[in-house]
Amino acid sequence: MADFTIAFQLMIAHEGGYVNDPDDPGGETYKGVARKIHSKWNGWTTVDMLKRQTSFPANLDKDPDLQEAITDFYRVTFWDKMKGDQITDQAVANSIFDFGVNAGMGTSASLAQLVIGAKTDGVIGPKSIAELNAFNSEHFLAAFTVAKIARYVSIVKKRPTSRKYFYGWVLRALGENA
């Protein structure tokens, strides 16, 4: 079965640290947690407190409670929702998890279901897990990568200001560190 720690380490390498990019619809972001999307995340209280220190934002990575909050957030909000522990192939789990973090778990689940020919409801349940685990993992990863890139093309067409993220998104879809 897939291991969260492995998937988390691969995913977090893509997320970077603290960013407040005015072109990012998520707004203020720390390690991929976008404040506009996840405003109730308990780590924002710590981030706001640490902003008052002169060592900000470098001090964020040195706060052990904040780092634990990041790990817990990704486990509960993404990994557990996709039932990552029940996926037999680590690379498949890594890919669904990483794209879920980047594009939303419903989007990632729907694309994964589309690739395997399952009902596309955006929720990975027992039927999706069974079909996913029975599907050829190499074929899944190839088709899922193409589907992710097509999604990124669609985003850029709808929102041209996101073009600056496109290259990084494609590298991420290909499993590369940007």
| Secondary structural class | mainly alpha
CATH class descriptor? Mainly Alpha
Number of domains: 1
CATH topology group: Chitosanase, subunit A, domain 1
Order of helices and strands: HEEEHHHHHHH
The CATH fourth-level homologous superfamily: Chitosanase, subunit A, domain 1
How confident is the prediction overall: mean pLDDT? 94
| Spatial shape | globular
Query: Ends: how far apart?
Result: 27 Å
**Cα gyration radius (Å):** 17 Å
Q: Any chance you could write out the topology, listing elements then pairs?
A:
Blueprint: H1 4-15, E1 18-19, E2 29-30, E3 33-34, H2 43-50, H3 64-79, H4 90-103, H5 105-116, H6 126-134, H7 137-158, H8 163-173
Antiparallel strand pairs: 1-2, 2-3
Structure description:
- With 178 residues, this protein is mainly alpha-helical.
- It has a single domain (4-173), classed as Up-down Bundle (Chitosanase, subunit A, domain 1), CATH 1.20.141.
- It has eight helices and three strands.
- It has helices at residues 4-15, 43-50, 64-79, 90-103, 105-116, 126-134, 137-158, 163-173; strands spanning 18-19, 29-30, 33-34.
- Strands 1-2-3 form a three-stranded antiparallel sheet, with no helix packed on it.
- α4 (90-103) packs across α5 and α7 packs antiparallel against α8.
- The longest helix has 22 residues, at 137-158.
- The radius of gyration is 17 Å and the shape is globular.
